[in-house]
């Protein structure tokens, strides 16, 4: 039978505590970076949805076969979104998807509003830093995409703008959820 010598030893308590502390620091750094990655993915998803809707509306506006006249007389916001959804086959960009920030919130909506440029945040205008938590027509949530029809436009056409709400830093307003306009306004006869 062998007897263990007393000078054989394993890791000391201090060595184990140092290793555990190092693992804890690495985990905290990794978790912080992971959360930043998740937030960035949510913002990218929202922006991609807005860009997809803008591209689809632009394509429809420039094709003669897609008449929006059936939607011209619509004044109710929910009915306008339904009318736009009817122009596209099932599963299109107007179909309401899960909001990437909170699945209980609406991801896509439509609104009839006079001069949407003055209602929503538009980075092209220095003094228009509207945040998404404002009241009235500009009320929204992170991850929401809004198709805004300018009802002050004359004639029987749509002047559609697509805005999305996401976290951003705006000079004079700080960091928070703000509206951003995607590209140009679409004029659809």
TrEMBL record:
<keyword id="KW-0488">Methylation</keyword>
<dbReference type="InterPro" id="IPR045584">
    <property type="entry name" value="Pilin-like"/>
</dbReference>
<keyword id="KW-0472">Membrane</keyword>
<feature type="transmembrane region" description="Helical">
    <location>
        <begin position="12"/>
        <end position="34"/>
    </location>
</feature>
<dbReference type="GO" id="GO:0016020">
    <property type="term" value="C:membrane"/>
</dbReference>
<protein>
    <submittedName>
        <fullName>HemY-like protein</fullName>
    </submittedName>
</protein>
<keyword id="KW-0812">Transmembrane</keyword>
<dbReference type="InterPro" id="IPR012902">
    <property type="entry name" value="N_methyl_site"/>
</dbReference>
<keyword id="KW-1133">Transmembrane helix</keyword>
<dbReference type="Pfam" id="PF07963">
    <property type="entry name" value="N_methyl"/>
</dbReference>
């Amino acid at each position: 039978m062998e007897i263990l010598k007393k000078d054989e030893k394993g890791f000391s308590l201090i060595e184990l505590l140092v290793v555990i502390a190092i693992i804890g620091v690495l985990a905290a750094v990794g978790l912080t970076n992971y959360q930043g990655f998740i937030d960035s993915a949510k913002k990218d998803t929202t922006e991609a949805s807005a860009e997809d809707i803008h591209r689809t509306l632009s394509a429809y506006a420039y094709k003669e076969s897609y008449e929006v006249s059936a939607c011209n007389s619509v004044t109710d916001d929910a009915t306008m979104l339904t009318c736009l959804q009817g122009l596209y086959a099932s599963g299109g960009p107007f179909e309401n998807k899960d909001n990437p920030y909170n699945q209980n919130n609406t991801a896509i909506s439509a609104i009839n509003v006079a001069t949407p440029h003055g209602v929503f945040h538009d980075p092209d205008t220095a003094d228009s830093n509207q945040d998404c938590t404002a009241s009235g027509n500009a009320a929204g949530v992170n991850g929401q995409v809004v198709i805004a029809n300018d009802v002050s436009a004359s004639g029987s056409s749509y002047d559609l703008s697509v805005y999305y709400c996401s976290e951003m830093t705006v000079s004079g307003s700080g960091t928070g959820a703000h509206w951003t306009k995607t590209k140009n306004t679409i004029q659809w006869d």
